[in-house]
TrEMBL record, chain B:
Phylogenetic lineage: Bacteria, Pseudomonadati, Pseudomonadota, Gammaproteobacteria, Pseudomonadales
Signal peptide positions (record): 1-24
Positions of region (Disordered): 33-85
UniProt cross-references to SUPFAM superfamilies, sorted A to Z: TPR-like
Protein name: Uncharacterized protein
Organism: Marinobacter guineae
Record key words, sorted: Signal
UniProt KW Nucleotide-binding keyword: no
UniProt entry tagged with the keyword DNA-binding: no
Length: 746, 191
């Protein structure tokens, strides 16, 4: 018997040692987790920098500057357009930016009279970047961790009052409570009561399964005692606050009060009111059973019980308790999973981190992540979506509409702003990345680019046939594409077919150059998923996310240079040591000359074609290029286009893929134009490639002509493909005179 | 060693051009927001008459605007014969990068040049400088691409063109692309 006991004791000791190792390693991993700090791009100030006075002030405030005399580091003074800014200095991955005092004037949305008046002189300074969020890159999801010192004191007090009154006195388990619970369970003949301490509940959350076996109970008790031996009560409590299970969203578990506060109320834990804290504490007993969204009555009862406990424990006054019991649950309609201000953008940052950086690097804590987010552009993009969407297609439709907007810097591929839905603060389905929708006519520039890369066969002037036809497949199926307006126009010049987005010429040209060639062009420009080889792809039956559309349009905007989209400039560890850097890359994927011709037709789209209503909102001086896209029954409304500085892709549609009355021009274009109208920028004016020459031509006669002739159009041609014939015209004298003087007075 | 000597010509030429980067401000006009009050956006027009024959896929010519009634053109597509120059701010960053490059800090130099690129994204010089930095760090593939990008923005500036084509010829030769190098050299010589 003694021997038997001894063996048992040795086994138990061994088991305890094993559990001890499990407990300490796991607990350590959870305890001191420091989030990675995510920064916006730093604002660079220099003579001529493009920014409005309002945007500069917003940016200063976002970076934590105080308005004042502008003398102390971290403060600024504004007097109309005149600013005096005292920077704090910042340690950037590529070097330190010293503290300085600078003065400047904003005039015509540009920085003027820039000078450093204190500190090291420099023609350019960087403000400290705004911190836009905190993430835990090693985790697949956003976490919202809280520190004990930061949570409202009433939360842990209530928690203890309800779940474990003697928390600060017991050693991990409370035999008395267990005895009481056992008695109750025996009486009932089943498990009705738990006598778990907070420590035991934490152990259960961290290490164990949910089933209630005796062996598990034993392990739980040993581990709880071990945990208490190793750690302070406050450490255990803090970890509990961050680990407790408080709900489920699909496959995703909601752990911790910080995240639960966002998930149920869309608020930070520190901003919660008594009745909200009571609800969360009440849910500890059974997050699913007391789910306030699904079982509001049950949840209210439980919450009010907790409020009474708070009252009894003297945590709140009776009047306040009574008032709290009378309040509705106050749960937000839609769950949010993040407390980051720009959830859609941060989502993309997270994906780029896992794409571009090694996982083991990301496991180190307290990383600093320098992103490309431009707060001023993001502000304008969010405004464009939230302001325009309610006015599209009537109030009833507008309610069901969603929208996304992706904005990138044209030549660097940096993602400057991202709006993932009509509620930009909502962290959930990120349409900008995950909504794969048919792109409709956005595909047409790629069809014509494929054609124009064969200058011996196609020029912008080449007549293409706008006439219906039927395609019969081997299996007997027939396909008969049509134009949107049902009209057929006979022969139209290629540039016009693209700028007016006629369907029939696009399909004809696409079939002539080959569906596989168009598909190769798309792949070269950055589509990384398989592309349908059916002819219907020529009318955009290909599905893409808005971010992919932005990627492929980048090549069109930059004369054929593909620039991988990036959100991250640099990542450093907590000591400022840079992790591997992800640099600017360019790769020529198409002949610049052919792209230049497509850019011409895309500018024509804005001036004469399907995009011209943009100029109802925008200044005529801002030259732009773009393309509309619409799919069957207005299910998707797209607009992709660019200025000299920015590329933006807007999408409007319904999540259920339902029909709308919108076209690309009446849905996405207003959102796009509204955005563009708020940002000071350069017009689009591409440099003419070497091999391209502009000629005045008569497109109907397929011949060179004189500038002053009626129907004369200045078209770019790849050298050798220009027409050889010339037609002259009499032209009116007035028109001729205007032609002679046109260049002089511009 | 041989590669280094060959490169010297290209680098020197590119540096020379930088000194004379007073090229005029080509490119698009800067359009401030404050200067021109934008008109209130026109309420989007929507047509509900969806009674036409079934269509496989639509495009979006507004049905109410057949081509005969299109508004007259008010402006033509824009283009520039010249690329853009470097602003003093961008130039100061390029100078810093040159200093770092001399001291062998290529990644520091590239970081400065990328800052310059963000300020002057349509200036051929910035891309030629990036190309040089990549040559020094022996990433010739990237160097070639940045040279091509620079050339696409050089416009009709023959000095920039010549520098770019010479640089390209050197890089291609170092990469073993003799035909490509000869072609680039011929382009430089023809200017």
């Amino acid at each position: 018997m003694f021997r038997f006991c001894a063996i048992g004791l040795v086994l138990l000791a061994g088991w305890t040692v094993y559990l001890d190792a499990v407990v300490t390693s796991r607990f350590e991993g959870r305890r001191f987790e420091v989030p990675s700090r995510v920064y916006a791009r730093p604002l660079e100030l220099f003579e001529g920098a493009s920014i409005s006075a309002g945007a500069l002030e917003r940016e200063l405030q976002l970076s934590g500057f105080h308005k004042g005399a502008g003398d102390n580091p971290g403060s600024y003074q504004r007097n109309g357009g005149r600013f005096i800014i005292s920077t704090r200095g910042f340690s950037f991955p590529d070097g330190d930016e010293p503290a300085r005092k600078a003065s400047l004037t904003i005039s015509g949305d540009r920085v003027r009279n820039f000078s450093v008046i204190r500190g090291e002189a420099a023609p350019i300074i960087r403000l400290e970047p705004a911190q836009i969020g905190g993430i835990y890159p090693a985790h697949k999801e956003d976490r919202v961790l809280v520190e004990l010192g930061q949570v409202p004191a009433i939360l842990p007090a209530t928690l203890m009052a309800v779940e474990d009154r003697n928390f600060y006195d017991h050693f991990g388990i409370a035999p008395l409570s267990i005895g009481r619970a056992m008695l109750a369970n025996i009486r009932a003949g089943r498990v009705v009561q738990g006598g778990s301490t907070l420590t035991q509940q934490l152990v259960k959350n961290l290490f164990l399964t949910r089933d209630q076996t005796l062996l598990r109970k034993g392990n739980e008790a040993i581990m709880s005692v071990l945990l208490e031996l190793h750690y302070e009560k406050d450490d255990i409590l803090e970890t509990y606050l961050n680990e407790v299970y408080l709900g489920q969203a699909g496959v995703r578990s909601i752990h911790g009060f910080g995240l639960a506060s966002q998930f149920y109320f869309g608020q930070s834990l520190g901003d919660l009111d008594v009745h909200q804290i009571a609800l969360l504490v009440g849910m500890v007993k059974g997050a699913s059973y007391y789910n306030p969204r699904r079982n509001p009555d049950r949840a209210t009862q439980r919450r009010n019980l907790v409020i009474s406990e708070m009252e009894q424990a003297g945590l709140i006054e009776p009047e306040r308790a009574a008032r709290a019991r009378g309040l509705p649950l106050g749960v937000s309609e839609r769950p949010s999973y993040s407390e980051n201000r720009y959830p859609a953008y941060i989502d993309l940052v997270r994906r780029h981190l896992s794409r571009d950086y090694k996982e083991e690097d990301l496991r180190s804590e307290g990383l600093r992540i320098f992103t490309t987010l431009d707060p001023a552009i993001q502000y304008a993009a969010e405004f464009a979506v939230t302001d325009t969407l309610p006015r599209l297609g009537g109030a009833k439709l507008a309610e069901s509409l969603e929208a996304t907007l992706v904005v990138t810097s044209k030549d660097s591929g940096e993602v400057l702003a991202l709006v993932g839905g009509k509620d930009p603060r909502f962290a959930g389905f990120n349409r900008a990345l995950d909504a794969n929708r048919q792109i409709g006519s956005l595909i047409k520039p790629f069809i014509y680019l494929s054609a124009l890369q064969r200058p011996e066969r196609y020029t912008l002037m080449t007549p293409v046939l706008d006439k219906s036809f039927t395609l019969e497949f081997d299996d007997g199926r027939r396909w008969q594409p049509k134009n949107y307006d049902g009209e057929e126009r006979g022969e139209v010049p290629l540039h016009k077919a693209l700028s007016r987005s006629y369907n029939l010429p696009a399909v004809r040209v696409g079939l002539d150059v080959g569906v596989d060639v168009v598909s190769d062009t798309l792949t070269a420009f950055g589509v990384d998923t398989p592309i349908s080889q059916y002819p219907s792809m020529l009318l955009g039956s290909v599905s893409m996310s808005p971010i992919t559309v932005a990627q492929i349009y980048q090549g069109l905007a930059t004369s054929g240079f593909n620039t991988p989209l990036r959100t991250i400039r640099e990542v450093t560890d907590a000591n400022g040591e840079a992790l591997s850097r992800y640099s600017l890359e360019v790769a020529q994927v198409a002949d610049s000359a052919a792209v230049h011709l497509v850019q011409y037709a895309m500018q024509e789209t804005m001036q004469e074609g399907t995009g011209r209503s943009a100029y109802n909102t925008l200044s005529q001086q801002l030259t732009l290029a773009g393309k509309t896209g619409t799919t069957d029954d207005g299910r998707d409304s797209w607009f992709a286009g660019f200025s000299g500085d920015l590329l933006a892709v807007a999408w409007v549609g319904r999540d259920d893929n339902g029909a709308t009355v919108l076209t690309g021009a009446s849905g996405a274009l207003p959102v796009w134009s509204r955005f563009m109208a708020q940002v000071p920028q350069h017009g689009f004016s591409p440099v003419v490639p070497d091999e391209v020459n502009y000629h005045w031509v008569n497109t109907e006669r397929q011949a060179l002509t004189d500038e002053y002739c009626d129907n004369a159009r200045l078209l770019p041609f790849i050298a050798g493909s220009e027409p050889t014939q010339t037609v002259s015209c009499s032209g009116t004298l007035e028109r001729r005179i205007r032609g002679w003087f046109e260049g002089l007075f511009q | 060693m041989k590669i280094k000597t060959t490169f010297r010509t290209g680098l020197i030429i590119a540096m020379l051009t930088l000194a004379g980067c007073a090229s005029g401000p080509g490119g698009g006009i800067y359009v401030p927001v404050g200067g021109e009050p934008a008109k209130a956006p026109e309420p989007p027009r929507t047509s509900t008459g969806e009674d036409e024959a079934p269509v496989w896929r639509k495009s979006e010519q507004p049905a109410e605007a057949p081509s005969e009634q299109e508004p007259p053109r008010t402006s033509s597509p824009s283009y520039s014969e010249t690329g853009e120059g470097l602003s003093p701010a961008a130039l100061s960053l390029v100078r810093e990068a040159e200093g770092l490059l001399k001291r062998g800090d290529t990644s520091g130099a590239i970081a400065r040049l990328e800052r310059a690129q963000r300020i002057a994204p349509r200036s051929a010089e910035v891309y030629f400088k990036l190309s040089e930095a990549y040559v020094v760090s022996n990433q010739l593939g990237s160097a070639e691409q940045f040279t091509l990008k620079g050339l696409s923005l050089a416009g009709n500036d023959t000095r920039l063109q010549r520098a770019g084509w010479s640089l390209l010829a050197d890089i291609r030769r170092a990469r073993g692309n003799v035909a490509g190098a000869d072609q680039a050299e011929a382009r430089a010589a023809a200017l």
